[in-house]
Amino acid sequence: MFHIFQCQPLRLITHTSLSSMCLKLMLSRPVAFAQIWKSWFSSHSLLGKKNIILMGPPGAGKTTTGRIVGQKLDCPVIDIDDDVLETTWNMSVSEKLQGLGYEEFLEEEGKALLKFSASGSVISLSGSNPMHAAGMQHIKKTGIVVYLDVPTTVIMSRLKSKAMDRIVGLSPGVSLKDILRFRKQFYKRWFDIRVLCGGDVEAEVVAEKVIDAVKRYQDSELETFISTRSSRSGRSTEEDSQKLYFSDIITQGLALDGGLFVPERGLPKFTAEEWQGLIEVTYIERAQVILERCIHPTDIPASKLAEIVETAYGENFSCSKVAPVRHLAGNQFLLELFHGPTASFKDFALQLVPHLFAYCIPRSCNYLILVATSGDTGSAVLDGFSRLHDTDKQRIAVVNFFPEDGVSPIQKSQMIGCQTENAWSVGVKSDFDFCQTAIKKIFTNSDFTGFLTVEYGTALAAANSINWARLLPQIVYHASAYLDLVHQGIISFGSPVDICIPTGNFGNMLAAFYAKMMGIPIRKCICASNENNVLTDFIRTGVYDLRGRKLISSFSPAVDILKSSNLERYLHLIANEDGQLVTQLFNQLENQGHFQLQKDLLGKLQQDLVAGWCSDEDCLAAIHSVYSTTGYILDTHTAVAKVVADRLQDRTCPIIISSTAHYSKFAPAIMRALRIAEINQNPLSQLHLLSSYSALPPIHWGLLETLKKTGNGDHHVCAADMNVLMSHIEALAQNHFM
User: Fold this and answer.
1) Is the N or C terminus of the chain more exposed, i.e. has fewer CB atoms within 10 Å?
2) Which residues lie below 8 Å from residue 625, measured CB to CB, with a gap of 6+?
3) Which residues carry this modification: N6-(pyridoxal phosphate)lysine (predicted)?
4) Residue 117 resides in a domain
5) Pairing outcome for strands 332-336 and 325-329
C-alpha cells in the first residue's frame, strides 16, 4: 500500500536549536518573528491531518497548482498520475491506457486509488479519477475535494499544443469537447468546494484561491448574519448574543428586533475572469456557482445544493434557458421571468427555497410558513411547497394571506387551484400592506409563537421576500441576464447596462443591486412604480411619507404596495450598517407614518437608483403600442417598466427590463389594452381568446392547466383583524400537525 504521512513542522531542526533560533529572532526582530509564526501556524492549522484534493479536467492545471499550494503550506505534494499510477504500474499512464483500453483502465486506476493512503498532503487527481466511484469515496474521506472549474473553451485551447494520449475515452469517434462535457457530471458529484479558473489566471493566483477556498470551507464563522436593526458596536438584541447562520435565518424570517437578516460580512465578490467563465454555461450551472458562494457548505453541501438547483430549474420551467433575454426594440431587452409553473418571477425563488428550507430545518420540528402576497407570491409559494417529498409535507405547511379584492381574477383562481394537503389560501378583507404588517406582528408576538410551539410543536417561518433565501435566486437571474447579453455579442464584458424593474416590495430591485455589488457592471437601477408611487417620491426627495396616502387599486396589482419591506436592507447597506439609524427610521415610519433621509445618504441612494411611475392609461397604451409594432404582449407590470424606461433611459447603453409576469395572468386588462370589446368573465375563456391571437409569447402552459382544474374551488375568507388571522393560523396548525 502506498503511504504518505503528514510532515513534521520544521522537521530538520532539533528542539534545542529551534528554541535558540526562536529566542534570537524574537529578541532581534520581534515583528518578523510574529509574522513568520503566524504564517506557519495558519498554514499547518489549515491542513492538519486532512488532504487538499485537487480535481478537474485534463489541462485544468492541477499538478502545477498542487505544487504551489504545497510550497505555500510546506507539506507533501502528490500527483496521482506521476507519483502513484506510474510508480505502481512501472510504466507511463499512456502506455497503460493503450494496453488496456478505456473501461479496464478506469478499473485499474480505481484499484490503485483504493490502495492509496496519505494525510496532510496536497493531492492532484488524474482527470479520470472521479469516474471511479469506489476510489473517489475512499479518497474523499481523507480530505477536502477542490474542483478547479475551468471553462471548456479554455481547456480546449490549452490542450491544442499538448499530447493527449493520456486522456481516457478519446478516440476517432469521440471529440475532446464531448469528453469534457461528459465528465462534468462526475466532477459535480464529488467536490466540496469549487474554484473558478479563468483563461488568463496565473497558477500562483489559482493556488491562492484554493487556499482561500479551503479556509472558507473550514471556517463557517466567517459567514454569519445580523439584523438590519442591530449595531456592530453595541449589540443589544437577543440574537446578537449568538452566531446565526444561513440554516438558522432561513427558518426565522424576521429578526427578533423586527429587522431583516443580512450577511454580516456582505456578499461575495466575483472577479471579471470568474464572471467571464460563466458566459458559456447553462442557467442551472450559473445558479449553482453563485449560490455556492452565498451559502456556506456547512449549511448546505455543494453536492446537495446541486441536486436542489437541478430539481428547481431542471423540469419545472417551460423554457430550456429558464430566464431568456429577448430583444424588444432599439437598445431595450426583456428578461423573461415568467416561464416557471405559476408564470411569474416569484417561481425562481419559490421553486428553490422550499427544498433549501426542508434541508435546513430539524427533522423533529414542524413548521408553518406564513406568506402575504399582493398577487404572484401566493401561488408560487403554494406550488413550490407542494412539490416537496411527502415526508417533508407532513412537517411543513403553508398559509397564504392575500387581499380578497386586491388581486386579478386569474391570480385568485391560481391561489385557489394551487391549494394542496399542506398549503392553503386565505383571503383577507383588506389590502396587501395590512397582510404584510399583520404577519410581521405575528412573528414578533412571543406569546402566540410560544403557544403554537407548546400546543402543536409548531414553529412559524416566512417565505416572503423578507426571508433572505428569497433574494439569492433573484441575484442569479440578474447576473445571468447580463452574461446572456455578452454571450449574444450585444456587449463585451465590462460594458455597462441599466436595469428597469417594476417595483413594489423592493426585493427584485435589491437583488439587482446585490448583483452589481458582486461584480456585474450595472450602471443604474431604475425603479418603476404605478400610481402607488411612494418609492418614486422617496428616491427623488429622500422623504418616505405614508401620511394621508391610500392604496390605489391598479392594473399592476403586484406593485400596489406602500410599505416596501426590502428597502430596509438597502438603507442598512448605504448607511454603513448603522442599525441604530435604521431602527430610528423605521420606528418613525411605523409610529408617525414618515421619515426623511440625511442629505449624504440621499446622495448615495441617488447614485444607485432612479425612479419613475406611470398611470394605468399609460400602461395600457404601452401594451397596445408594443403589440402593434412587434406582435409581443407585455403584462401590465412589464408595461409599467417599459413606460418608465422610455422616459428615463439615456440610450447610451442597453437596458434590461424585467418582465416579471406572463400577460395571461392579467387577461381582462390585456384585452382592454388590445381593444377587445367583449370580455367573458370566465378566466379560462379569456385565455382561450387570447391564445387565438397567436401572439408572443404563447399562452402560459402551467397557468392554463391550473385553471382547468380549479373550477369553483373553496378558500377561507376572513376580516382584517389580527385576532381573526391568528385564529386561522392556530386552526390550520391544529388540523395539519396534530
Assistant:
1) N
2) none
3) 346
4) yes
5) antiparallel
What count of other Cβ atoms lies within 10 Å of the Cβ of residue 629?
10
Contact predicate 694/627, CB 8 Å: no
Pairing of β 193-196 and β 143-149: parallel
Chain centroid offset of residue 464 CA: 15
Helical packing angle, 409-417 and 683-691, nearest 10°? 110
b/e per residue, 255-273, with b = 16+ CB within 10 A? Answer: bbbbbbbbbeeebbebeeb
**Dist CA 313 CA 353 (whole Å):** 12
How many domains does one find in the chain? Answer: 1
CB atoms within 10 A of CB 593: 13
pLDDT band at 30 (very low <50, low <70, confident <90, very high): very low
Please tell me the distance from the alpha carbon of residue 247 to that of residue 265, in angstroms, as a whole number.
Answer: 16
Residue 465 contacts residue 272 (beta carbons within 8 Å): no
Q: What is the CATH number of the domain that holds 73?
A: 3.40.50.300
Please name which of 542, 561, 540 lies closest in space to residue 550, comparing C-alpha atoms: 561
* Geometric angle at alpha carbon 636, from 631 and 641, rounded to 5°: 90
Nine-digit cell string for 149? 472549474
Residue ranges of the alpha helices (H) in 228-375?
A: 246-252, 272-276, 283-294, 302-314, 346-350, 353-360
In tens, the pLDDT along 361-381 reads: 988 889 999 988 877 788 999
Q: Side chain identity at 298, as an amino acid letter? A: T
Phi and psi at residue 182, to the nearest 5°: -65, -40
Q: What pLDDT, in 10s, does the model give residues 162-188? A: 766 678 777 777 788 888 889 999 999
Q: Does residue 147 sit in helix, strand or coil?
A: strand
- Measured distance CA(558)–CA(717) in Å, rounded: 20
- Predicted TM-score (pTM) of this structure: 0.89
Give the integer Cα–Cα distance in Å for 651 and 653.
5
In a domain, 96, yes or no: yes
Residues 504-524 have a mean pLDDT of 96
- Greatest Cα pair distance, the chain, in angstroms, is 97
The answer to whether the beta carbons of residues 201 and 213 sit under 8 Å apart is no
Look at the block and give the residue holding cell 424585467: 658
Residue carrying the nine cell digits 484499484: 111
C-alpha torsion 316→525→664→426, nearest 10: 80
Q: How far apart are CA 717 and CA 57, in angstroms?
A: 58
Helix (H) or strand (E) holding 489: none
How crowded is residue 540: how many other Cβ atoms within 10 Å of its Cβ? 15
Q: How do residues 129-148 score in pLDDT, each as one tens digit?
A: 999 999 999 999 999 999 99
* 673/360 Cα distance (integer angstroms): 46
Q: What is the DSSP string of 158-202?
A: HHTTS--TT-TT-BTTB-HHHHHHHHHHHHHHH-SEEEE--TT--
Q: Is residue 138 part of a domain?
A: yes
Q: Which residues carry out catalysis?
A: 346
Can you tell me which residue has the cell 409535507? 393
Tell me: the pLDDT tens digits for 331-348?
Answer: 999 999 999 999 999 999
Strands (E) located in 512-601 = 522-529, 543-545, 594-596
Cβ neighbours of 72 (radius 10 Å): 17
pLDDT at 426 over 80: yes
Asked if the structure places residue 395 within a domain, the reply is no
Task: Give the closest residue to 611 by CA, choosing from 504, 519, 507.
Answer: 504
Compute the mean pLDDT over every residue in the chain, rounded to the nearest whole number.
88
Enclosing domain of residue 57: 51-219
Half-sphere exposure of 728 (CA within 13 A, CB side): 25
